[in-house]
User: Fold this.
Amino acid sequence: MMGDNGNIIEVRDLKVRYPIFGGLFLSKVAEIKAVDGVTFDMERGETLGMVGESGCGKTTIGRAIVNILQATAPDVVVEGNIFLNNEDGQVDLAKMKRKEMRPYRSQIQMIFQDPFASLNPRLTVARIVEEPLLIHTKMSRTERMERIGWLLNKVGLSPEQAQRYPHEFSGGQRQRIGIARALATNPKVIIADEPVSALDVSIQAQVINLLQDLQDEFGLTFLFIAHDLSVVEHISKRIAVMYLGDLVELGPSTIVYSNPKHPYTKALLSAVPLPDPKGAKARERIILKGDVPSPLAKPSGCGFRTRCPIARESCAKEVPQLRDYGDGTKVACPWV
Assistant:
């Protein structure tokens, strides 16, 4: 049975490392700490926005939840737990092999960032959307065709377009096809990996509104990964801020945006362009010193300390843990 806490996904101390091999005998010489001990929950029916600079580990977390990391990097090391709470009880997705994972793939689907690369150009739209139905259901061909037409209608396309190929569609339409494919098996959780970043601004709003309508209708849970903070604020109930593989702040979107606590979150939000830079909502621009360190040479202790304006000597000694501030936010900094 579903847990009493109302969480559908529970991530516990997730670590993802990519080994680097070199030398004459191709032995392990280093490793990239893409995700370094991240813990968070996703409530049923909510949208959790995940933000941060490129390379901070947010896409890796999404792919770890869907359990597709080993398909792209066989040597990847995944530690920790990713619990899925469903009607049959709690299962740990992080510990599952490919065959063990198959029964749960229909419950967790992914919308990819690039609508031009995520669709097979040799398949028609009907075949693309039909593929998960062939794998995860026992529908007849007639039932599958009816389902495909219904899904295309839901995402704002017409059933008549099912026999076309991806190159005949615009970027926004291709992303709608990707959304239809993700919805095919009636999933409970959808990982949306920067689903609008490759689209024009006018099309972004259409896709965001579509995702919200589908969430209201089907009770979907979204992990919405993005670097556009204004988009995340609009769609998310809670926001998780990532920096160099660490989760540095987590809380309700209204509080995180109106009263950011972690120095990195403050700097990130200060960079958001405003319609009226001199208006009441204007923030003082915070310029961080230095560059983002390489995950190959991550600083000891707090990963942000080399750029932090309030860093102290003790920040180099131990990794700060998320502290509950009582207003629903958790911050990984003892000095705020």
